[in-house]
Amino acid sequence: MHFVIGTAGHVDHGKTALVKVLTGVDTDRWKEEKRRGITIDLGFAPLTFDDEVSASIVDVPGHEHFVRNMVAGATGIDVALLVIAADEGIMPQTREHLSILEFLGVKRGVVAVTKSDLVDDDWLELVCADTAEWLRSSSLNWSKPVAVSAETGAGLDELKGALRNGGAGTVERSVSDLFRMPIDRVFSVAGAGTVVTGTVWSGRARVGEEAIVLPGRYGGRVRSVEVHGSAAKEALPGKRTAVAVSGLDREHAARGSVLVTDKCWYETKAVDVMLTLLPDARTLNQRSRVRVHFGTSEIMARVTPAAGGIAPGSSAPARLRLESPAVLRWGDRGVIRSYSPVCTIGGAVVFDPDPPMRPRRPQHAEAKCALNPGDRLAGFVASQPGGIAVGSLPIRLGLSRADAEELEENPPDGVEYLGSTFLDSRRVNQVTAVALEKLNIHHESKPLDPGMDLEEFRRALGLGPAGASLVERLRSEGDVVVEQGFVRETGFRASLSASQSAAREPLMAELQSAGYRGLTSAELESVIANQDWREIAEFLVREGSMTRIGKDRYYSSGTLQLLIKEVEEEIALRGGVASPTELKGRLGVSRKFLIPLLEWLDAKGVTVREGDYRKIGVGG
Predict the structure, then answer these.
(1) Domain 427-489 is in which class?
(2) 12 tagged catalytic
(3) pLDDT digits over 214-269, tens only?
(4) Model-level pTM?
(5) Annotation marks residue 228 as catalytic
(6) 16 an active-site residue?
């Protein structure tokens, strides 16, 4: 078993010294840290308990100027190691760090009361008691405070035991989930290329797999993996990991970027969250500007509360409009800090990482926040007119692929699954009724039409890609008939009215008389003498009684059958080929009428043109 421990606590309370005596690693890597005697950036060290249990320790800065670095390090930890110096007790940064741990959803914690060698036993006992009482109302499950000394080694074995027990109570992260690793360091290594480090949040990445850095979608391939300096075949969840990515430029990754392997991940600049403010924070109103920490990133954002403002000590849905893109998922937790002065004022839990642009405020927040995946899905489809694609469920609903497939096979009540898209059943029924009514109106207004254009009918449904699946369902259930690119009601047949039928006989007689010359649209109109003459003509074309050649000339279909026979006979008489001039003499028409007819015969395959001659085609 492996888990991640993250330190927390006020500056100069001995976090780094404690990590060093526990692991043998000095996590202060920079000269500036050595010179000033304080931690500025994140440090990392391995801690082995036995052959079966190990941990990665993330050592964070305690100074108020480096809280954003602290948040980056606290992201993704399993167990918090809260360090409180016995000679100073609970300090301002101790309180802020505790709030950050709570907002990030850390569940378990261990308290180390350091510098125990600097105070007497009575004072040490008082500090431990005060600390335990202070943490009683915390959302974390805290162990009993352990008094330790990095100088004398007192209490270290008890502390290691408490950390091991804390790790034993954590939930093991799934390797079958989507891979994601927020990046906290980027550097180049000769022979390896660009190396990114971080704590793997979920899934696994194997050597040789495609890798993507977001935002920006910069691609590469996993060249090698290391866990605390030791080579590994894959990056696994819950481990501090360094990944060398071949093909990735150094400038395309930075702290705040995210390494993924699945293309379904995306970046967003709007996110709906449940936002909670600390009791001493100021009210957040429309367009309040804040700093948001998600993963290892710090992003400026504007707040749009669902209604009114968000009062201190309360929780409410809000939309965050991010000034830079973020890579988020349902259930992700973040820390909210004020723009100025910079201090922690609240936390946020993502319930929609890709909300619709309209309306501009969160919708269906209660349903989208539901713990049950089916209830969540119902909330999402209710807010998305076009539905939710099944491929987006791992991100939008925070599900593993297996859970997404389970929903696909067993959608909850009130949800339809159509063509890889989940839709609200009420909306499906509504748009179906509207589309069928439009189809009925089309039949009534254009009784000679074979039906509504298929694409037009799909657009009338307003369901995007799922519209095609709904049309197929309506067809299979017998509500509509789909033929030759048209949709019609079952039982509907285009037919001429009595007055329209009266125009058929004189029109066909006139076409027969016109022979190979045919009739133009204007000539048809004068013959039919009916306001619906164009509709009647097109109906007769679809029926097969007459044929349109080109855009504006109509022929009797019987006449064209005679044309085919005469052309084939003439070509046969002339030894298999005939020129337009020879065919013109046979048919008795000018080139004005002959050439379009010959091109029509070519298109049907009755004839084949070779130079200036025609011969019998495969369709002849």
Answers:
(1) mainly alpha
(2) yes
(3) 999 999 999 999 987 789 999 998 888 899 999 999 999 998 999 999 999 999 99
(4) 0.78
(5) no
(6) yes
